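Q: I have 78 residues here and want to know how they pack in 3D. Can you give me a structure?
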Amino acid sequence: MFEYRRFPRAPTEAPIQDLTGLRVGDLIVLRPYSQRDSAGRICWVCHCRCGVEVAYPANLLKREGVRSCGSIECRYHK
């Protein structure tokens, strides 16, 4: 019978895609955040059109999972 062996994988890091200047809905990506989120994802600081700065993970920004900071101002002033 065939024997499966598990070999330890070397940790690999994909290159970080620069999202600076990306516009997603009402957000503009400014810079990478100094910390990662609880899942280890890189977060980016974004400036909303209402003036608030928020940090979101890159995957949410890339697939447009967020479109604003979520404040009441942004929800009703479209």
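Q: Anything worth noting?
A: The first helix runs from residue 58 to 62. The radius of gyration is 18 Å.
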